[in-house]
Amino acid sequence: MTERTLSGIGVTPLSGVGTVVWYRPDADLPEPPAPEDVDEDAELARFEDARAAAEDELEAERERTAERVGEEEAAVFDAHVQFLNDPQITDGVTDAIEGGLPAEHAVQETFSEFVEQFENMGGRMGERADDLRDVRDRLVRVLSDGERVDLSSLPEGSVVVAERLTPSDTAQLDPERVAGFVTVTGGRTSHAAIFARSLALPAIVGVGEELQSVEDGAEVVVDGESGDLVVDPTDERKEAAAAAADVDVRHESVETADGVDIEVAANIGTLADLGPAVDRGADGVGLFRTEFLFLDRESPPDEDEQYEAYVEALESFDGGRVVVRTLDIGGDKPVPYLDLPDEENPFLGERGIRRSLGPDADLFETQVRALLRAAASADGANLSVMLPLVSTVEELRAGRERFESVAADLDADGVANELPEFGIMVETPAAAFMADQFAPHVDFFSIGTNDLAQYVMAAERGNERVSELGDYRQPAVLRAIDATVSAAEGEDCWVGMCGEMAGDPDLTELLVGLGLDELSMSAVTVPQVKAAVTETDTADARELAERVLQADTKAEVAEILTLEL
Ligand code: PEP
Ligand code: MG
Fold first, then answer.
1. Could you tell me which CATH number the domain at 257-563 has?
2. Which pTM was predicted?
3. Which residues form the Phosphotransferase system enzyme I N-terminal domain (predicted)?
4. Which strand (E) or helix (H) includes residue 68?
């Protein structure tokens, strides 16, 4: 048998080897009876009963997910309950039943119309279509007495293959037994992708209809990094994937071959990400994206809830630094209850520190109070805070003054607090150009290459049409990084990186050569980057960086680094 490769979007940089189990949750409904044969009252009652039963199931799944994955991930089930009880949708179902359809057909028809509407909206709203579909399929299954396919007790080594996986589906997957999953549809930020990252499961989404040609029981390698699904893999391929999966986890901090310490930390969004970060050997947290504490809920977390979240992160690492980024709302991170303005170019609009010093000043104050208190907790000395999307020295000063004035208020009230280590993200060209002016005012920089690449190259992140251009391996982006690190030299200011680039082990030597002190990434690649650090010699790395900085194209950068583009 010769191997063949299908391509999709890899969403976790992990590999898995296993056997395909096709998951097809729902077969088509049979043709409905003639309207005159439908007992309207009986069908309305069946719908009400099904709605109640579905709500009970959702409550139970919510609890299970909160336990196994995390409170924030479990919040998706609240959204499902809302859809289940949304009067616009339920009135639609009732109308369809009154129009002569049995309950399951009425549900199928009404929900499908809403699914289509959401899909047409695209973007994040489009991704909500998966939630609606999930609620629809659940109701149809309850109404047609369908058996729930049990994703939680699959044979060990299963690779789940499906048209799509809804949040309830992914929540059932047991990472101990499942070797990965692959779907026909889906994007990098779909719920399924986010769950895959939280559970550290190899996963590929968006393979397309070609995936239907892969048969149940086929042996496959899921390469969640390249997005390649290899069917009927050769023995060498399987061994390589197994070896990649079997990477050595180092729980101790690492240094280069010539003895220079490099901190290797994890990026987290929710507290559920702490477990994988510790398990994969992260030294600490290099980026806590606190806006995730504010998403998928009805109202913002209060000061105590935030305080507890920061303290829990600090307690998870034995002396490791935890860098908390203040709210970065706006851009591609909408928060429904904040009623953000409709902007033509949200990435160039009111985002990050701009909102914290403007319309979200109250939210910012609450967060600052929680952070100052957390800095005074038992492990608080390891807390660092940084401001997102800073582009002027005034913003940095204003942000810092906010910390100082809130600390004075807390002192006046006799509340224990400390000023934590203070830094900024360098993710705008303005911050990179002005890094020498910023450096004396901060303890550290953390370079956010996701935004830095987008703004340096004027290529929207996430827009596939310009993804070649917005690549962090573009010479202009590398020069912006170099300018930032060089500006901090001689100042008491360490420099880290927390964009996706930091987690690319093929670039570790270059980043050490450019002078980065810390690299922070999604937990899954921590072991590979730690291994790469130990193999790096800083003199060689510097020489490599100098050559790369002379390159005039991305292709030349890749050639020097012997990378495949
Ligand atoms: C970045 O921009 O590189 C970054 C780490 O921040 P985020 O991806 O959260 O915008
Ligand atoms: Mg950013």
1. 3.20.20.60
2. 0.72
3. 8-128
4. helix 40-68
